[in-house]
Design goal:
With about 350 residues, the chain is α+β, with helices and mostly antiparallel strands. It is built from 10 helices and 14 strands. Helix 1 runs antiparallel to helix 2 and helix 6 packs parallel to helix 7. The radius of gyration is 20 Å and the shape is globular.
């Protein structure tokens, strides 16, 4: 899978990022999302694969979707047997967020990127469009910190695992009313808090990289993005746990579903009989082969954003594989016309 799709999935996220970045700072988050969706879909439909979207995007914001169940790739065509070999007809599960952090793009803020994760059929958890309590941490803390423990307990454990004082730790938390008590607890414990408005996939992955100055992600964010984060963290060996949040009273805003009871019924209809189960990265991204790819739309901790020049653009991407055990940072120059000059750095 990696040999067949590795380069092409980079191009998928690159095209989505370039399309979305043209709307950076224009205050049009839905358009920034829509063009990313269209660019991602167009490029995926040129790949010799049989892909199925298991996690789409846009339902919460009433934005355009790469909808769940949508088939993508050349080998999904009715006449596919004529030009696709049997290996390419194997179904691949795909989780996408063509514009992770639409508000970040719309208002010209850092941290937005185009992301996707792929695995063989059944290799990615088909998360409902609910919310998820998340805990991400570096590989050194794998299996030591626990989402069921308090933030204070986890900070003490993290401090020991990383051989750092608690005061040196930085925890990323989304700036939401539901996190007020969590933020206070982290600060009272002595750690520092980095608040973000959107885009917790980047924050989760950054925990796995020393030098990012991000040591943990805590709090409640979107469940689909939790699966994408888990796919990357499984490949990187970092710690990730997620627990579905189905009670509107907990998230306080934006949850799909009118009541706790109706949401539980929805989970049961999806085969999730234990709504309070805590999932780790191996369960959220259980496939034998898992690939993750991201491309910066606006500048972030891991990657720069799209930079345009006369006749082209430059992108930075990250592709991670559990098969080759690699994390590749890819710097690409896209020549649209006939650029007069190409800057080396």
């Amino acid at each position: 899978m990696e040999n067949t799709l590795g380069l092409e999935i980079i191009e998928v996220v690159e095209q989505a990022a370039i399309a979305s970045s043209k709307w950076m700072g224009k205050g049009e988050k839905d358009i920034a999302d829509q063009v990313a969706v269209e660019a991602m879909r167009e490029r995926m439909n040129k790949i010799h694969m049989r892909g199925r979207i298991v996690i789409g995007e846009g339902e919460r914001d009433n934005a355009p979707m790469l909808y769940i169940g949508e088939e993508v790739g050349i080998c999904t065509r009715e006449d596919a047997k004529a030009f696709c070999n049997p290996d390419e007809l194997v179904e691949i599960d795909i989780a996408v967020d063509p514009c992770e952090g639409t508000n970040l793009v719309a208002y010209g803020q850092n941290g937005s990127m185009a992301v996707l994760a792929i695995s063989e059929k059944g290799g990615l958890f088909a998360a409902p469009d609910f919310y998820m309590k998340k805990l991400a941490a570096p590989a050194a803390a794998q299996g030591h910190v626990d989402i069921n423990k308090s933030a204070t307990e986890n900070l003490k454990i993290l401090s020991e695992c990383l051989n750092r004082s608690i005061e040196e730790l930085v925890v990323v938390v989304m700036k939401r009313d539901r996190h007020n008590e969590l933020i206070k607890e982290i600060r009272d414990a002595g750690a520092r808090v980095r608040l973000i408005s959107d885009g917790d996939v980047s924050a989760a992955i950054s925990c796995a990289f020393a030098g990012s100055n991000i040591h943990a992600l805590m709090g409640i964010g979107a469940a689909p993005e939790g699966v994408i984060s888990a796919a990357a963290m499984r490949c990187l060996g970092g710690h990730f746990q997620g627990q579905l949040i189905y009670d509107p009273a907990v998230v306080k805003t934006g949850l799909i579903g009118e009541s706790k009871e109706s949401n539980i019924e929805r989970l049961k209809s999806m085969g999730i009989n234990d709504p309070d189960k805590v999932y780790n990265s191996d369960e959220l991204a259980s496939g034998q082969t898992v690939l993750f790819a991201a491309c910066g739309i606006t500048p972030g901790t891991l990657m720069d954003g799209v930079r345009f020049f006369s006749g082209g653009a430059r992108t930075q991407s990250l592709v991670i594989s559990n098969q080759s055990r690699t994390a590749r940072f890819v710097d690409t120059i896209h020549m649209f016309d006939h650029p007069k000059s190409l800057q080396l750095r």
